[in-house]
Write a structure and sequence with these properties.
It is built from 6 helices and 11 strands. It is α/β, with parallel strands linked by helices and about 230 residues long.
């Protein structure tokens, strides 16, 4: 396993992740039922990004690795976690540390991540990115390209690849590749949230228009997806 870069300023316990949103359970962003962690901040600006509020590095909520470990260890009935955003590999060292901490406590625990960068570029990206790659079971790589939108499992455009990094999800990957989906949920306080891969371009704006016509508003804090 690729070692993590040495910690800066001593203790790892204070390592923080800039978080856009978390979701305890989701079945449309990876195999089985899994938690989802959306990070805040992405250096890319893909046209048609449906999570534009996660792109700025400003904002988000700073949460320590210890806090996120407690969260993931306290959620019952999940197979693993999906890392999305934003760009997870912009916070690769902290996320690799998080996966180590969770697996130390929970044992077997799956990990999947999205990245706007190609796998080949990530392999050349330095020790932190290599460390995160080494801890993943599945990577969805490449930028979203609106002109190549497709109804595909776990991804939005057909240039994006499902890259198995272990054999953990071999059975799932052998299934037909035509299962895009979206889940809606009501968050504490009554906010409407959604997660998943839109079945068609422009899904987000149409959903907001239809909800507005019925008197509902999707607040920025609640409209995260990848």
């Amino acid at each position: 396993m690729t070692p993590l870069p040495p910690p800066r300023h001593g203790a790892r316990a204070s390592t923080a992740v800039s978080v856009a949103r978390t979701l305890d359970r989701c079945t449309v962003l990876g195999p089985g039922s899994r938690a989802v962690l959306w990070v805040q901040g992405c250096p890319l600006r893909c046209h048609g990004c449906v999570a534009a509020e996660t792109l700025p590095f400003e904002g988000g909520t700073s949460r320590t690795v210890a806090e996120l470990t407690d969260w993931l260890c306290d959620v019952d009935g999940i197979e693993g976690v999906t890392l999305s955003g934003g760009e997870p590999f912009s916070q690769a060292g902290a996320l690799a540390e998080l996966l180590d901490a969770v697996r130390e406590r929970r044992g077997d625990f799956g990990a999947m991540a999205y990245s706007g960068f190609r796998h080949e570029a990530l392999r050349r990206g330095g020790p932190a990115r290599l460390a995160l790659l080494d801890r993943l079971d599945l990577l969805v790589d490449g930028p979203y390209v609106a002109a190549r939108h497709g109804s595909l499992r776990w991804r939005g455009s057909d240039n994006q690849r499902l890259i198995p990094l272990t054999d953990r999800y071999a059975r799932s990957l052998a299934e037909p590749d035509t299962t895009a989906g979206v889940e809606l949920s009501v968050e504490p306080g009554g906010a409407l949230a959604w997660a998943g891969v839109p079945p068609s371009p422009g899904f987000r704006s149409r959903l907001e228009e239809r909800l507005a016509a019925r008197g509902f508003v999707l607040h920025t804090e609640a409209r995260r997806e990848r």
